[in-house]
Amino acid sequence: MGSAILTGLLQPGVTVTDSIRVTNRTAAKARELAKLPGVTSLALEEQPDANRIAVAGARVVLVAVKPALVPDLLREIGDALEPGTIVISVAAGVTVATFEALLPESVAVLRSMPNTPSVVGRGVTGLSAGTRSTEDDLAIGRAIFETVGTVVEVPEGQIDALSTISGSGPAYVFLLIEEFTKTAIAKGFTPEQAAVLVNGTFRGATELLAQSDKTPEELRIQVTSPKGTTERAVAVLQRAELSRTFDEATDAALERAKELAAGS
């Protein structure tokens, strides 16, 4: 996710006033990122204090490591942060309270939940303020994530629920495409033909929704002719109680988010 945001910041028309510093564990990955214009890339295997070097004097620090690594990282960089620095979390399940407890009081914290379509500039990011952040801090965070898509500001109490919708949502869509593709192949189409049919249908339908002033329900009804083939198929899907299935799936994801927040 950090790489996706970095890609957004490097797009034409995006203004970054200072150089961007990034850290990685391996020298190979660091060398790859060092090729990007305006990016200083540091490898922990070559410079053990790379994280502290990277955050020194920074206005904004993006923490995009695995949740289990966050506490040690914050302890490592805490006293290297300048007063007024904004630290933005991209770590699932790690609360603002955890960040604020491990960082100096002079540092503001924002919590974010981007999703993988950020890689292609179509991301949806949930953004929450911390107890020490200002409206200006939030505006800076919003501007960063708007380089890779749209931003929805929510209270932190909603960020885990948001993660079950937009954060995990792409996986739900890919699963639907995966299963629909299997169905197309079972109907006699080649895998290549099935991919064209299914991928194109999903892309076209979502683009139609994006450009229309109609709701998904209205568009579905528009496609569904009375007593036609689509109506018969939709009736089968509705009998499968998809609404209940999605409720159960997102509830399961939310429970896991709570487990991550509790450190389990």
From TrEMBL:
NADPH binds at residue 51. It is found in: Cytoplasm. NADP(+) binds at residues 64-67. GO terms for biological process: L-proline biosynthetic process. Residues 156-260 form the Pyrroline-5-carboxylate reductase dimerisation domain. Pfam families: F420_oxidored, P5CR_dimer. SUPFAM superfamilies: 6-phosphogluconate dehydrogenase C-terminal domain-like, NAD(P)-binding Rossmann-fold domains. Residues 1-93 form the Pyrroline-5-carboxylate reductase catalytic N-terminal domain. It comes from the Bacteria. Transmembrane segments: none annotated. Its EC number is 1.5.1.2. It catalyses: L-proline + NADP(+) = (S)-1-pyrroline-5-carboxylate + NADPH + 2 H(+); L-proline + NAD(+) = (S)-1-pyrroline-5-carboxylate + NADH + 2 H(+). Keywords: Amino-acid biosynthesis, Cytoplasm, NADP, Oxidoreductase, Proline biosynthesis. Pathway: Amino-acid biosynthesis; L-proline biosynthesis; L-proline from L-glutamate 5-semialdehyde: step 1/1. Belongs to the pyrroline-5-carboxylate reductase family. This is Pyrroline-5-carboxylate reductase. The gene is proC.
